[in-house]
Amino acid sequence: MRTSMSVIRLALLISLFLVIGTKPMMAQRFAVKTNSLTWATLSPNLGAEFIVSNKVSIDLLTTFNPFNFKDYSLRFVLVQAEAKYWFGRPFSKHYVGALGLFDNNNFKFKDDYLKGDVYGGGFTYGYAWILSDHWTMDASIGLGVVHYRQFKRKEDESYTASPNKVGTSIAPIKLGLTFSYILK
After folding, report:
1. CA distance 110 to 71
2. 160: domain CATH number?
3. Is the pLDDT reported for residue 1 higher than 50?
4. What is the pLDDT of residues 159-181, one digit of tens each?
5. Structural domain range at position 45
6. Are residues 176 and 136 in contact, defined by beta-carbon separation less than 8 angstroms?
7. Reduced to 3 states, what is the DSSP secondary structure of residue 163?
8. Which of 10, 68, 92, 116 could lock onto 73 through a cystine, CB 3.0 to 4.6 A?
């Protein structure tokens, strides 16, 4: 519990420094955003996106889930950074992106426990609709390569000294229906 709270604090602190550190790069606009699909899994998330040129923006998003339920727990912290190339002007229409991610997790399914981390990267595609002067909605999907390390155990066992489930695979790395508020 203490380690996962430390990871949450570290992820939020890194996101804050990234947001503050990229502010001088901001051209005309910057957006605050949230992915509604991850809210559907009871996973609060908050992000920021900065325009850095006429066709490029940088998107930073942090998602976490601190909740426990009777037979399962999906505790995790996910940090994603994405560089997007817009085919039109930023925050509207088609874009492609390069995404990097890091996830620290601690899952429980009945009497099975998994604790570990995932990191990886890949490519994304998205489309953004302008809803008003300040609001946009964007749908996105991504595919990439992830590397994972998991410590797996049963309820009555203790964790092993080294991960007992390690691997690399091609996986979906992003699925989003994101709402953004643009600050001009």
Report:
1. 5
2. 2.40.160.20
3. no
4. 777 788 899 999 999 999 999 99
5. 2-183
6. no
7. coil
8. 68
